[in-house]
Write a structure and sequence with these properties.
Layout (H helix, E strand, L loop, with lengths): L15 H17 L1 H14 L3 H4 E6 L4 H6 L3 E2 L8 E5 L7 E5 L10 E4 L4 H8 L13 E9 L2 E8 L14 H13 L8 H19 L1 H17 L3 H11 L8 E7 L5 H10 L3 E7 L6 E8 L4 E8 L22 H9 L2 H5 L3 E5 L2 H10 L9 E2 L3 E5 L3 E3 L3 H9 L5 H10 L1 E11 L8 H10 L13
Parallel strand pairs: 1-4, 5-7, 8-11, 12-16
Antiparallel strand pairs: 1-5, 2-3, 3-4, 6-7, 8-12, 9-10, 10-11, 13-14, 14-16, 15-16
Helix pairs in contact: 1-2, 6-7, 6-8, 7-8, 11-14, 14-15
Length: 463
């Protein structure tokens, strides 16, 4: 049985009641702790994010357990401090709750923990001098930010771990961790033969797992993937800097999107499975769309991947992530992007990173930074999604010629790609409500078509 708790047919529910209950408790905490309240205001004004999205968990007294269970929360089997129980909503993307047995009744959470990416960055930006519980390399580290009116704010840092118990790392593990991080950062991605690149990726993967274990290797891999993507995406660099000004990092990431060639799609999926990700829903938007996607997730690390690939109509009823798809001359949007830039897995890096924001607010704030946003491709009360205007990359003429020679692009298109380059990457402005975990298939199909490199209008969007 999968460790992911998924509803039938991945029909992700809207957990508005659960979200409202969490918000009520979080707001009650903010009324008691002025540092947290001021931080929430700064998150909104300076990063376009909301405090809710940074909450890792909070602790309530026993009289609140019933209301959380009534809202859909269930006990989660994970490590907790003595006398506590973890509650989580199994089908929603929401903070978790710890119930502390024997705690005195309280109308507000006595403890609330936010999660920046790195504690040292958060402490440095806010002038905090407390001692971090958990040495560098610990699976969970935490620091006491401050206590007011009986409300204690914590900040936590996670490393491939979903539990709540601080445990010191083995002797020398911090050094081993740095070695694994360097292996990912120095991984060669560009080979004359992509098969060699795939072999190299798996070789590095096995070394990293041998050094630090699967879940930590997963955490480190995606941190480096975000770093690689940012070097090729100005919107990502600008927004990361805005979040770093508050010491937050990318801990609000929602999912990581990879575009993959038909040849190497099963390699990508196998690689992700080795990192602990499990297959979730598959997408196929119809014969005219020409693409499919496999969503994957690891609950232990909190990573979700959306992996795109060109598909033919007769391939959609199969597990297209489990076999090598034959080469075809005609390429769709995903295949053309990979043909021009390389696979996300290899040379190109991610097509885009999605993080959770206040959707309209971030749009305004990025516009003030000179970064335009495309029209939303999902605009629902529970899911809003829009790309920033794409980063245009130069294209290797050799890649263009191979596509032209195969008949995948016309002579005119080839000349335009060599002259002007092609859109390579985006930042995605995403907002979820009701803890909605899913995606809108029709909307995803529309945006994939809208950013096809053959669409010359992609360089001019409504701001």
């Amino acid at each position: 049985m999968s460790s992911l708790q998924t509803p039938d047919n991945f029909n992700w529910p809207l957990a508005y009641e659960a979200e409202a209950l969490l918000s009520r408790h979080i707001n009650a905490f903010l009324e008691k702790n002025s540092f947290a309240a001021a931080l929430a205001q700064r998150m909104h004004a300076e990063t376009g994010t909301e405090f809710f999205e940074w909450v890792d968990h909070f602790v309530v007294s026993p009289e609140h357990e019933k209301e959380f269970r009534a809202a859909g929360f269930v006990p989660e089997t994970t490590e907790v401090p003595a006398g506590q129980m973890a509650l989580a909503h199994p089908h929603a993307m929401l903070p978790r709750v710890l119930v502390a047995a024997g705690a005195a009744p309280s109308a507000f959470p006595r403890i609330l923990a936010i999660r920046p990416e790195f504690l040292a960055d958060f402490m440095g930006r806010h002038g905090l001098t407390g001692e971090i519980c958990g040495a560098p390399g610990a699976r969970l580290r935490q620091v006491r930010v401050g206590e007011e009116n009986g409300a204690t704010l914590l900040a936590v840092e996670r490393l491939g771990y979903r539990g709540f118990v601080v445990q010191e790392p083995p002797a020398g593990f911090a050094t081993t961790l740095l070695r694994a991080r360097e292996l990912w950062r120095t991984r060669k991605r560009n080979f004359a033969n992509d098969d060699e690149g795939v072999q190299q990726a798996f070789a590095v993967l096995e070394k990293c797992i041998g050094l630090v274990g699967r879940d930590v290797a997963c955490e480190l891999f995606f941190a480096e993937e975000r770093e690689f993507w940012m070097f090729r995406n100005r919107a990502g660099r600008v927004q990361k800097r805005r979040q770093d000004m508050l010491g937050l990092g990318w801990a609000n990431h929602d999912h990581h999107t990879y575009r993959c060639s038909r040849r190497h799609f099963p390699d990508l999926v196998k690689f992700m499975e080795r990192l602990g990700l499990e297959k979730r829903e598959r997408f196929y938007a119809g014969a005219e769309a020409g693409w499919g996607a496999q969503v994957m997730e690891t609950a232990a690390v909190g990573i979700v991947v959306f992996a795109d690939v060109d598909l033919l109509p007769d391939e959609v009823n199969e597990d297209y992530a489990a076999k090598r798809l034959p080469e075809v001359a005609k390429v769709g949007t995903v295949g053309l992007w990979c043909g021009l830039h390389g696979d996300s897995f290899l040379q190109a890096g991610m097509h885009h990173l999605e993080a959770r924001f206040n959707h309209p607010l971030l749009r305004e704030q990025l516009a003030a930074e000179g970064i335009a946003t495309m029209r939303p491709f999902s605009d629902f009360p529970f899911l809003k999604q829009a790309f920033t205007e794409g980063e245009r990359w130069t294209v290797d003429p050799g890649r263009v010629e191979r596509l032209r020679a195969r008949g995948s692009i016309t002579d005119a298109q080839a000349a335009a790609f060599v002259k002007d380059g092609a859109i390579g990457s985006h930042l995605e402005n995403l907002e979820r409500k009701g803890g909605f975990k899913g995606f809108n298939q029709k909307a995803v199909s529309a945006i994939i078509a809208a950013v096809d490199p053959r669409n010359v209008r992609e360089v001019s969007h409504t701001h």
